[in-house]
Design a protein that fits this description.
This protein has 494 residues and is mainly alpha-helical. Helix 4 packs parallel to helix 8. The longest helix is centred in the C-terminal third of the chain and has 41 residues. The radius of gyration is 25 Å and the shape is globular. The N terminus is likely disordered.
Length: 494
């Protein structure tokens, strides 16, 4: 009997040992699968507000720099081909701007709704909203690509470019970048969902890798190396698209085993209609704003083309240099959006108030810094891209005039993110639509004076000053009402 008892004890010990080992292995597997992503998430609902917002914002702002880098790298290399190539990319690139407006529906709609549901603790609904956003992004990207391929000639003809070479290059750039824009769409939607989760570092990392790939591919495909032919403008387009494809693959690898949202996506399951409607309701106003902005920019570009291809090149290069400000503003706006969305869903009004104040201070400082750079060192920055002496004075005028508006642009970005985080996308959209539309008559009026081409630049700058003044005041009024109701409800609950 003792013998059997001893055997039973030994067996029991062995089973216990095996169980402990299996638990240990499972734990290692779980950490290996989920730990990386979980550590990357930032708790937006608790902790020091300034530190939390900074941790969320800096990777997004870094990502914005990287995204700006895609365009700057392209422009540096394309600038070596001459102002004609720059003009071609400038014209075709307008339709990429328009594409970004279209993808705003699933990107903003998905980010805000996912943030609200995560803040409220409803992870299942958050996953369903994420699924709907990705499906919508894929559909819109494919549709936009088909239209771009079929109508490329008619779209480029809108700008009335002068040189046949410039026209052909513009068409090629349009067909490649917009024809395969679905990868850009999905990259942006995935980035928005991760931001809503408090995970911005993944977006920064994969986008950084994409930039380095673009850095390598640009000179190789533009100028040719060994058996690779010289593709010029078409090569720049191919480099950008290949980088976007690789970024998409890296996104998939990063989120494949994420346990909260992406493990429950079920992409082939239909999203509920009311969820789709809510995303469209939130995302449609900023999409209209962004798309209209792109359309207005095209009209302005056509007006600028009246001063020749060099003027088009100046506007393209100048806007890329200026993007150091507005890309940062856009990136920080995304951070504010995510921060406020979760706290709004959790009903934390005081945390929203402090978070927005912190955002305003940071953006004001950054806007003042970029204004200083553009006003004091315009020629230095412009010569990085174009060295043709007859074009330099035009570029200097552009940067100095636009430089005045940078701080206002940054303040507009902070207010836009705050409105969107609360699910109120109409105010920033209305503000943008009204003052961006006024750019056209203002540009026509001022350019007819002694200002000539500089009148167009002044129209752009003044519209930014007005938006950066009106929208923050509007948010202050809306938030005052929200905060008053929040304090009253909190007082009653005590």
């Amino acid at each position: 009997m003792d013998k059997y008892r001893n055997n039973d004890k030994i067996t029991e010990i062995k089973c216990l040992h095996r169980y402990c080992q299996s638990v240990k292995l499972y734990r290692k597997s779980f950490v290996r699968k989920y730990g990386v992503i979980m550590k990357k998430k930032i708790d937006l609902l608790n902790g020091p507000i300034a530190g939390t917002l900074a941790k969320l914002a800096f990777p997004i702002m870094g990502t914005s720099f990287i995204q700006m880098g895609y365009n700057l790298v392209d422009m540096i290399w394309i600038g070596r081909l001459g102002s004609g190539a720059v003009a071609a990319v400038g014209a075709a690139g307008m339709f990429m701007w328009l594409a970004n407006g279209v993808t705003t529906i699933p990107r903003i709609g998905g980010q805000v709704t996912v943030g609200h549901k995560l803040g409220a603790g409803d992870k299942e609904a958050a996953a369903e909203y994420a699924r709907g956003a990705l499906r919508m992004g894929a559909f819109l990207g494919i549709l936009y690509g088909i239209v771009s391929l079929l109508l490329n000639n008619q779209l480029i003809a809108f700008f009335q470019l002068n040189s046949p070479k410039v026209i052909w290059d513009a068409r090629m750039y349009l067909m490649i970048t917009c024809g395969l824009v679905v990868f850009s769409f999905l990259d942006q939607v995935l980035g928005g969902i991760l931001a809503a989760m408090g995970n911005t570092i993944t977006t920064f990392r994969v986008t950084t890798i994409g930039l380095f790939i673009n850095l390598i591919l640009d000179p190789v495909l533009i100028f040719g190396v060994g058996p690779i032919p010289r593709l010029e403008v078409a090569g720049a387009a191919m480099a950008t698209v290949l980088a976007q494809v690789i970024v998409f693959v890296l996104y998939l690898r990063a989120v494949w085993n994420e346990p909260v949202i992406f493990a429950n996506l079920h992409l082939f399951v239909k999203t509920r209609k009311e969820y789709v409607r809510e995303m469209v309701k939130i995302g449609f106003p900023p999409a209209i704003q962004d798309s209209l902005f792109s359309t207005i920019s095209m009209v302005i570009a056509r007006l600028i083309a009246g001063w020749g291809d060099a003027a088009v090149a100046v506007q393209k290069v100048g806007s890329q240099i200026e993007s150091i400000s507005w890309m940062m503003a856009g990136g920080f706006s995304t951070a504010v959006n995510a921060f406020i969305a979760q706290n709004y869903g959790a009903g934390k009004g005081e945390r929203i108030r402090k978070g927005y104040r912190t955002a305003v201070v940071i953006m004001a400082v950054w806007g003042a810094f970029t204004s200083f750079l553009l006003l004091v060192f315009p020629e230095f920055f412009f010569r990085i891209f174009i060295t043709e002496e007859e074009v330099i004075p035009m570029g200097v005028d552009y940067l100095r005039i636009i430089g005045i508006s940078e701080i206002f642009m940054c303040l507009e970005g902070a207010a836009t993110g705050a409105f969107q985080g609360m699910g109120k996308t109409v105010p920033p959209s209305v503000t943008g639509i009204v003052f961006n539309t006024l750019r056209i008559p203002t540009a026509m009026l001022l350019s007819a004076t002694a200002l000539e081409l500089n009148g167009v630049w002044w129209a752009l700058s003044l519209s930014c000053v007005l938006k950066g003044t009106v929208l923050p005041v509007w948010f202050a009024l809306v938030f005052r009402k929200f905060y008053k109701n929040y304090k009253e409800m909190k007082g009653r609950s005590v």
